[in-house]
Specification:
Number of helices: 27
Number of domains: 5
Mean pLDDT: 83
Distance between the termini: 42 Å
Shape: globular
CATH topology of the largest domain: DNA primase DNAg catalytic core, N-terminal domain
Radius of gyration: 28 Å
Low-confidence stretches: 421-429, 559-565
Helix content: 40-55%
CATH architecture of the largest domain: Alpha-Beta Complex
Strand content: 5-15%
Structural class: alpha+beta
CATH superfamily of the largest domain: DNA primase, catalytic core, N-terminal domain
């Protein structure tokens, strides 16, 4: 069976991208005008060695499949097949369709079994909570296929036994786990179950909510090759047709909120799954409408989620409005106190997202200079002159000062910060050993694992430590890292990982950088001993400390090397 990674390794990303745009050689990479935003100077790069593209203008990034998916606005499966046709190789999905079919059929049976439990004696407490406390009638529970996983649940194991589904796959998909003594237990226990469907209405994951209050309130299935929270919106499969028909969508924060909208006639609503609204979500939405209404919770987390969304939204030509409640913490609570007619009237209170964003940043405006400083600090990431001009107009209106006076204050603040924080030099002509660590993290899996095992990130400086930590968290592809860096760091990272290095033995380079890290650790230990010597008056203690220092200095003599040598 050909894996997706093997498939992508066989694909010629330069050949595929060249079907759509003109590329020219730029060192070990290729560059061209970005197809995802208008530009006159090329900022779009393709690296054939690492197999990814990245635009330093709009931030678009990904592998060959993501490029075709994005530029053609098609599904993942369609993009894989299109890439396979362009490169004249077999699609790996030919071999995985059966597995996906078996998985979704199992999930469908599992959801039905959880629903049966809800209406049994084991589910009485959960059913009472949903009907009496959350005001959901039986028809709604059945329509949205809501179920219940009992305490000490064996529902997953039972369904697997009946359907012949492999226990090993249950572990892979995160539906069961093993404890320290090796015994199996089910992931969802004593929780209300919500089926999560992909855009084609296939059940690919589950969500579980505690009965009443508890922490964590919500949990989702583990992410796997069929499910990613950053790619799926709850009830989007149901909402698609209504979004197109009404030419706008409502985005809320949880299962119950989305269901509340649907049962009150707003079937163009869907919900994020414990993550912010992502670029993948917005790509799905913009194919249906340009009009988005954000109705997130009015608690601190909900407000922060809306503020963090700014960088993502800035890349899209969407008409986004924000609606917040004054007498309810979320849509579900609102609809338990108001009817849909009241909500339609309440919609007039929705404000433009960027007006909302500015108000969030400014906060207390009694001290204008502090408010301006907060605005300057929070909007450093903005590259678009059009967006910045728009926000300046909104700020000047909120602070009741002239735009030219505001621009002058912002210029003074920017110059002050520029003097205190000179721009990082992103030229990588001769890499230092920390740059080498970053480079080696993306050479191959074996080298990466050795670095993660042998390098202590406590002795790395800011930039390399950040990359090291991203990789240790599981982000092993350059395009994943680029999405998390600012423009300056992104340029530095891109130059490092795409550098055309002439080296025969990466293990030798690895050995040198590990020695350099050990040397840095020894110097840190020596500094600590020196400080301890200064603070102690005990002669015997001083002699012992001095011996340790001399021993460490002796070790340093053997810790010399040059990665570039």
């Amino acid at each position: 069976m050909k894996s997706l990674e093997d498939f992508k390794a066989q694909c010629d990303i330069v050949k595929v991208v060249s079907h759509y745009i003109v590329l020219e050689k730029a060192g070990s990479s290729y560059k061209g005008l970005c197809p995802f935003h208008e530009e006159k100077t090329p900022s779009f790069y393709v690296n054939p060695t690492k197999g990814f593209f990245h635009c330093f203008g709009c931030g678009a990034s990904g592998d060959v499949i993501e490029f075709v998916k994005k530029i053609e606005n098609i599904s993942f499966q369609e993009a894989v097949q299109k890439v396979a046709d362009m490169c004249n190789i077999d699609s790996p999905l030919i071999y995985s369709d059966k597995e996906f079919s078996e998985y979704t059929q199992f999930m469908e049976q599992l959801v039905k079994s959880y629903a049966e439990v809800l209406f049994s004696s084991k589910g009485k407490a959960a059913l009472d909570y949903l009907v009496k406390d959350r005001k959901l009638d039986i028809e709604i529970l059945k329509k949205f296929e809501i179920g219940y996983a009992p305490k000490n649940s064996n529902v997953v194991i039972s369904v697997a036994a009946k359907t012949g589904f492999d226990i090993a796959n249950l572990l892979n998909y995160g539906l069961i786990s093993r404890n320290v003594n090796g015994s199996i237990y089910e992931f969802f226990r004593d929780r209300i179950i919500f089926p999560i469907k992909n855009n084609s209405a296939k059940i690919v994951a589950l969500g579980g909510r505690v009965i009443g209050e508890g922490d964590p309130k919500y949990i989702n299935s583990s992410e796997n090759k069929y499910f990613s929270k950053s790619k799926i919106l709850y009830l989007f499969d149901r909402a698609k047709a209504h979004i197109k028909e009404n030419d706008f969508t409502v985005i809320c924060e949880g299962y119950m909120d989305a269901i509340s909208f649907h049962r009150n006639g707003f079937e163009n609503a869907c919900a994020v799954l414990g993550v912010g609204l992502t670029q993948v979500h917005l790509e799905s939405i913009k194919s249906l409408t340009k009009n988005v209404l954000l109705v997130l919770d009015s608690d601190k987390a909900g407000m922060n989620a809306m503020e963090k969304l700014s960088k993502t939204l800035s890349k899209y030509d969407l008409n986004v409005k924000v609606l917040t409640f004054t007498d309810a913490k979320d849509p579900d609570e609102y609809f338990r106190m108001h009817d849909k007619k009241e909500f339609k009237a309440f919609l007039s209170n929705a404000v433009n997202y960027w007006d909302f964003y500015v108000r969030m940043i400014l906060g207390d405006t009694s001290d204008v200079s502090k408010a301006i400083k907060r605005f300057a600090d929070a909007t450093k990431w903005i590259d678009s002159s059009i967006l910045r001009t728009n926000l300046v107009r909104i700020v000047s209106k909120n602070l009741m000062i002239e735009e030219k006076s505001l621009l002058y204050e912002l210029k003074v603040e920017s110059e002050r910060k520029s003097n205190n924080n000179p721009q990082m030099d992103v030229k990588i002509s001769r890499m230092n050993f920390e740059d080498w660590i970053v480079y080696l993290l993306f050479v191959n899996e074996d080298i990466r694992n050795k670095i993660l095992k042998n390098v202590n990130s406590d002795y790395l400086s800011g930039f390399s430590r950040k990359i090291f930590n991203f990789v240790s968290e599981g982000r092993i592809y350059p395009q994943q890292i680029l999405e998390l860096l600012d423009a300056n760091e992104g340029q530095r990272f891109f130059k490092i990982v795409t550098k055309d290095v002439k080296i025969d033995n990466f293990d030798t380079a690895l050995k040198v950088v590990i020695e350099k890290i050990n040397e840095r650790k020894i110097r840190s230990d020596i500094s600590k001993l020196e400080e301890e010597m200064k603070s102690t008056k005990d002669p015997e203690r001083q002699r012992n400390l001095q011996k340790k220092m001399l021993s460490l200095y002796a070790v340093l003599k053997g810790k010399r090397g040059d990665v570039n040598g």
